[in-house]
Amino acid sequence: MAYIVIWYGRKGIIDKVTFDAEKTAKDHAIAMFQTRKGDDGVVSVEVRKDSGAVVFSHAEN
């Protein structure tokens, strides 16, 4: 099953990255959030199954 990390900015989706494992996708989202926030203006991130179900999300003001 594929897991998609979706990075959101104030104007919508900035980037999508696909992973094979949920743990890898979640770890990537957590580890990269602060960097992407500073570099790309990310305000939130979601990890979704390929079915569309959200398995993890994080947002900061």
Describe this structure as you would to a colleague.
This is DUF2188 domain-containing protein. It comes from Mesorhizobium abyssinicae. With 61 residues, this protein is α+β, with helices and mostly antiparallel strands. It has one helix and four strands. The protein has a four-stranded antiparallel β-sheet, with helices on one face. A hairpin with a 4-residue loop joins strand 3 and strand 4. The model has no long low-confidence stretch (mean pLDDT 96).
Question: Main attributes?
Answer:
single chain, 61 residues, alpha+beta, four-stranded antiparallel sheet, 1 helix, 31% helix
What is the fold's blueprint, element by element?
Layout: E1 3-9, E2 12-19, H1 22-40, E3 44-49, E4 54-59
Antiparallel strand pairs: 1-2, 1-3, 3-4
Organism: Mesorhizobium abyssinicae
Protein name: DUF2188 domain-containing protein
Produce a short descriptive summary.
The chain has 61 residues and is an alpha+beta fold. It has one helix at residues 22-40, and strands spanning 3-9, 12-19, 44-49, 54-59.
What proportion strand? Answer: 35-45%
Q: Which overall shape is indicated by the principal axes computed on the Cα atoms? A: globular
Topology as H/E string? EEHEE
Strand order of the largest sheet: 2-1-3-4
Radius of gyration, CA atoms, in whole angstroms: 11 Å
Query: Please, what is the average pLDDT?
Result: 96
